[in-house]
Amino acid sequence: MQEKFIVAIDGPAGAGKSTVAKILAEKLSYIYIDTGAMYRAIAWKCLQVSEKPTQETIEELVQNTCVKFVPNKNGTSVYVDDIDVTEAIRTPEVSANVSAIAQNEMVRKVLTAMQQEMGKSGGVVMDGRDIGTCVFPEAKYKIYLTATVQERAERRYKELIAKGYNCELAKLQEEIAARDHSDMTRAISPLTKALDAIEIDSSTLTIQETVDLLYGICVGGNDVV
Ligand code: DC
Questions:
Q1: Burial zone of 109 (CB within 10 Å; 0-12 exposed, 13-18 middle, 19+ buried)
Q2: Which of 98, 127, 172 to mutate to test the pocket of ligand 1 (most atoms within 8 A of CB)?
Q3: Can you give the residue ranges of every domain in the chain?
Q4: What is the average pLDDT score of the chain?
Q5: pLDDT value at position 3?
């Protein structure tokens, strides 16, 4: 039987990780796991309890929450306990609060264990911030996908406008830079490129070109980018 390996894709917000990871997983017939959605799901649940939850509330809540991915005809739905939060976790409110939740040690411990369980048999493409460094440091393929702050802000702007949100490009750029700073400087599992990860800058690449590069790395054995 062909080996089913783990593909770890890390990088900053808006670099295109989830878009390319999803397509890559389909091409490989693997399962795609969006770990950012899991942090968003916990942030969403915390916001249902309070606008400013205490550390105790967050810790108690994460230990009593089930986050699930359920396949549907259009892709995958995200569930918190029995509630479908697929759309709710993408609001600007959740985006603005998720970094703080992702810094909590208990949240990281619980979600990391869930992610390790989900990927233990291989055959997964998992994206996030610490997959190649903490969740699966032994992953066969590790990609660090990045793009300039300006390019990432423009992509997020187009996405939000298409969904009907009112937003300003300059403000999004500031928020992305602030989120990068918070993700890269937090004490536990900060966003960093694993020493053995292959770095790809997608600023000037199309989605298809990025997927082709990744697929080539995983299947064709290309290891220089
Ligand atoms: O990729 P995203 O924007 O949906 O991620 C949401 C937040 O979760 C972001 O602030 C970083 C955090 N995150 C993390 O700390 N570790 C992960 N493995 C995935 C996401």
A1: middle
A2: 98
A3: 13-212
A4: 93
A5: 80
Asked if residue 160 has pLDDT above 90, the reply is no
| Structure-token pair, residue 190 | 């900060």
Q: How far is the CA of 38 from the centre of ligand 1 (A)?
A: 8
Q: Are 24 and 215 in contact (CB under 8 A)?
A: yes
The length of the chain in residues reads: 225
Q: 114, 129, 128, 142: which is closest to 199 by C-alpha?
A: 142
Q: Identify the pLDDT of residue 224.
A: 45
Buried-state track 163-194, b at ≥16 Cβ within 10 A, e below 16:
eeeebeeeebbebbbebbebbeebeebebbbb
In this prediction the pTM is: 0.92
Measured CA to CA in angstroms, residue 205 lies from 12, 16, 31 at distances of 16, 10, 24
Counting from 1 in the atom list of ligand 1, the atom nearest the Cα of 35 is 19
Pick the CATH number of 13-212 from 3.30.200.20, 3.40.190.10, 1.20.140.10, 3.40.50.300: 3.40.50.300
Written as one letter, the residue type at 88 is A
